[in-house]
Design brief:
By secondary structure, this protein is α/β, with parallel strands linked by helices. Helices cover 53% and strands 10% of the residues. It folds into four domains: 2-101, Signal recognition particle alu RNA binding heterodimer, srp9/1 (2-Layer Sandwich); 149-316, Rossmann fold (3-Layer(aba) Sandwich); 324-389, Helicase, Ruva Protein, domain 3 (Orthogonal Bundle); 403-583, Up-down Bundle (Methane Monooxygenase Hydroxylase, Chain G, domain 1), CATH 1.20.58.760. The protein binds adenosine-5'-diphosphate and zinc ion (ZN).
Length: 587
């Protein structure tokens, strides 16, 4: 884009020079136009063949005859010169006579200069982040991007989830013939470097349609309306192609939750977001355009984006587990000269590495081997690359590689999972993992709660018990003095539930059906009783949880062992361990 612009800049530059040259020529020929004696001029006057005389303060005056000829002669500078001419019926102008050719060349020069100025201004603006141009957002479609699902290792669920999108892009008419509505938008969410961009490219590649990639941050401008304009031009471009994948990275930059009123520049963001939503509802199902957006955090997005007919399919792209890491490593070493690399060992060592980090590891190892002039990339080079990468990372990142930490996390998560299975058998524990999240958790246990409108007191207590399961497991296995900070978030959440139960939901003794909020408004200050009731409730529940875990220590150990081995385990694995009798037949 910039290069083309630079070429165009030559056009006004050339016209400017040409008009300048022309001006000089015209001027000189004009200036050197005939000069007549004053006596000849007087003769012309008496012959009344003069049309106009141009009188200025300069030593020469210009004379235009009725036949069009122009000449100059001396300015007599007499007081009544003008009056005499007028009396003879000759026009007198007090300006110099200008040649139309001269005016034209001056105009040409000025216009070229203005155009040149605008172009120069614009091109520098484009360079400095393209501030002004609504239509000049530099998106060109990449056709035949040469990516397909083979380039994405692991992430099988995510690949499955976009398979029908690929189908649809290949053959949109087929879907519309069935009356099926394909999602217009797909959101890929998950930690950075997990392959969201890669997956979007693979969708375009598999379907063999052009791929338009932009980033949400490209749309955030200081000038209201620019972002919206860019959205419209992006969609126009894509639609002119027929089928296409539009990829918007960092969608949160335009689609972040609106925080009621506050926050500068939100007006601009709203406009951009609205433009996006309008464009998305503008194309119909048969057009074969899919918008794929990526974000690290789904919960940060504005609900308007997630509604049906917009980005209604949400696909998590997770950090790779041990077997996916092995596949990713293999993929990135595929075209490199390697020798004796133990992929499964490297997969185990690289807990919490994203696909991008693994790619980086493979690349570092190759660079080091190359510097060494080694024939092959061997384990030794991977070792070096690994240390370099770890040393470069923050302290947190280094810690969790430690075997001991993995063990603590595994027991902690196993504690949550086991209590959940025992106390809330109707909630499905879908996933337990000891792969740390970038949000700081050492691991997590994900359960799909039973669908209920209300939660009764008993149920809330059980939820608290599940939250306490992590800390309780730590205490039972490692002793009361070795418990960790890992339960921080669990404790915050359980405290919140207990406080709500006793002070807001009317489920406690000390306040009965009174609510704390209203009491405080009325000046109530004594909170001693409430405080001790909360404390007693959590202590009782905690003891109960510990008893359950001690009872089920075999299961706790079995879950932990499997977690350490596999890092991520699922519902089926848990059922397998604790036995079918604890599963009340909920799928
Ligand atoms: P994201 O968009 O989620 O931040 P990217 O798709 O940009 O991540 O991934 C960056 C790079 O990491 C990719 O170009 C690729 O080399 C590597 N990578 C990430 N995930 C995978 C994966 N599942 N399989 C193979 N390579 C991956
Ligand atoms: Zn926990």
């Amino acid at each position: 884009m910039n290069k083309i612009k630079n070429k165009y800049i030559l056009i006004p530059a050339i016209t400017a020079v040409l008009s300048l040259v022309f001006l000089i020529i015209v001027n000189s020929t004009f200036k050197e136009s005939k000069n007549k004696q004053y006596t000849d001029f007087l003769k012309d006057t008496s012959r009344s063949s003069i049309s106009t005389v141009y009188v200025t303060t300069s030593p020469k005056i210009q004379v235009k005859l009725k036949d069009g000829t122009i000449y100059t002669t001396d300015n007599p500078r007499t007081d009544n010169f003008k009056e005499n001419l007028l009396k003879d019926g000759i026009n007198v102008s007090e300006q110099t006579l200008t040649n139309p050719a001269e005016i034209a060349s001056i105009a040409g020069f000025v216009i070229s200069l203005i155009v040149l100025g605008i172009m120069f201004f614009k091109s520098t603006k484009i360079k400095s982040k393209g501030m002004f141009s609504a239509t000049n957002l530099d998106v060109t479609a990449v056709e035949d991007i040469g990516f397909n699902f083979a380039n994405v290792a692991g992430n099988e669920e995510a690949k499955d989830s976009v398979q029908d999108v690929v189908d649809f892009l290949k053959n949109p008419e087929k879907y519309s013939a069935y009356g099926a509505r394909m999602p217009k938008g797909v959101i890929l969410y998950g930690d950075p470097g997990t392959g969201k961009t890669l997956l979007a490219k693979a969708v375009a590649g598999e379907a063999n349609v052009p791929f338009y990639a932009v980033s949400g941050s490209d749309f955030v401008q200081i000038y209201v309306g620019v972002g919206a304009g860019r959205i419209r031009s992006l969609f126009k471009k894509a639609r002119s192609h027929g089928r296409a994948v539009i990829f918007i990275d960092e969608i949160d930059a335009i689609g972040k939750k609106r925080d009621n009123g506050r926050g500068g520049g939100s007006d601009e963001k709203d406009q951009t977001l609205n433009a996006l939503l309008t464009e998305m509802s503008g194309f119909n199902e048969t057009e074969g355009i899919i918008v794929i957006a990526a974000t690290n955090r789904l919960d940060m997005l504005d609900e308007a984006l997630l509604r049906p007919g917009r980005f209604d399919r949400h696909i998590e792209v997770t950090l790779p587990d041990v077997s996916a890491r092995e596949k990713i490593l293999k993929l990135h070493f595929k075209n490199k000269p390697i020798k004796n690399i133990d992929y499964s060992e490297w997969a185990r060592k690289t807990t919490s590495f994203s696909g991008a980090k693994l790619e980086n590891l493979a690349n570092e190892a190759a660079i080091i081997a190359c510097k060494d002039n080694a024939v092959f990339i061997s384990n030794q080079y991977l070792d070096k690359a690994f240390s370099i990468m770890l040393a470069g990372y923050e302290k947190v990142d280094r810690d969790y590689i430690k075997e001991e930490d993995r063990k603590i996390t595994a027991f902690h998560e196993a504690g949550h999972a086991l209590i959940s299975l025992k106390m809330l058998p109707n909630d499905k524990v879908s996933k337990v993992t000891i792969i740390p999240t970038t949000k700081g958790a050492g691991g997590y246990t994900l359960s799909i709660p039973e669908d209920t409108l209300y939660q009764n007191k008993e149920h809330l207590k059980k939820k608290i018990m599940v939250l306490l399961g992590g800390r309780a497991a730590e205490e039972i296995i490692f002793g009361a003095s070795n418990v960790t900070t890992g339960a921080y978030n669990d404790l915050q959440r359980s405290t919140q539930i207990i406080a709500n139960m006793i002070t807001e939901y009317g489920m406690g003794e000390s306040l009965g059906l009174l609510t704390m909020g209203k009491l405080r408004e009325s000046g109530f200050t004594n909170q001693e009783a409430v405080f001790s009731e909360c404390k007693k409730m959590i202590s009782d529940l905690y003891e109960e949880v510990k008893d359950i875990l001690i009872d089920g220590k075999d299961s706790l150990n079995a879950i932990t062992t499997l977690l350490i081995d596999k890092e991520t385990i699922y519902h089926e694995d848990l059922i397998h361990i604790i036995g079918v009798k604890n599963n009340n037949g909920v799928a």
